[in-house]
Amino acid sequence: AERERLEEEERERAEAERAELEREKHLERARAEEAAAALEERQRAAEVAQRERVQEEEVREKKKAEVKAELKAEAAKKTEYLTKAKKLMARLVEVRGSLEPFERNKAVSRRRLQFKKVVRGRLNTLSHDSDKIRAVVSDVVNAVNAARTEDD
User: Fold this and answer.
1) Between these two residues, 150 and 37, which has the higher pLDDT value?
2) Alpha-carbon distances of 128 from 124, 125, 132, 134, rounded to whole Å
3) Which residue in 1, 76, 135, 148 is deepest, having the highest Cβ count within 10 Å?
């Protein structure tokens, strides 16, 4: 009987040791899974942080590009008047060059002077009165017709 009891205790101890080993293996697996899950979570967090940094960098680059574009637009706007003025000055020189022969011609210059006198003499008398305006217009038309008949 003593032997059976000792064998029974031995079996129970062996069973308890096996159960303890099973529990330790189970705990070890659980710890390994937790460590793997924690590692995976850290990797995901690192990936998210990396994506956020990339997005922030893209936003910064976009803002820089917008600021550069605005500065270019402002500079172009500031120099737009200058370039327009240069073009107009070139055009004026070109037109003056084409009118130069008329400036030297005495007949043309006399005619211009004649019309200047007619128009300037009448423009000072213009007002809101429509009759005065019509009178000035008829004087100018008469002067043009007289010059035309003189040319023919």
Assistant:
1) 37
2) 12, 10, 8, 11
3) 135
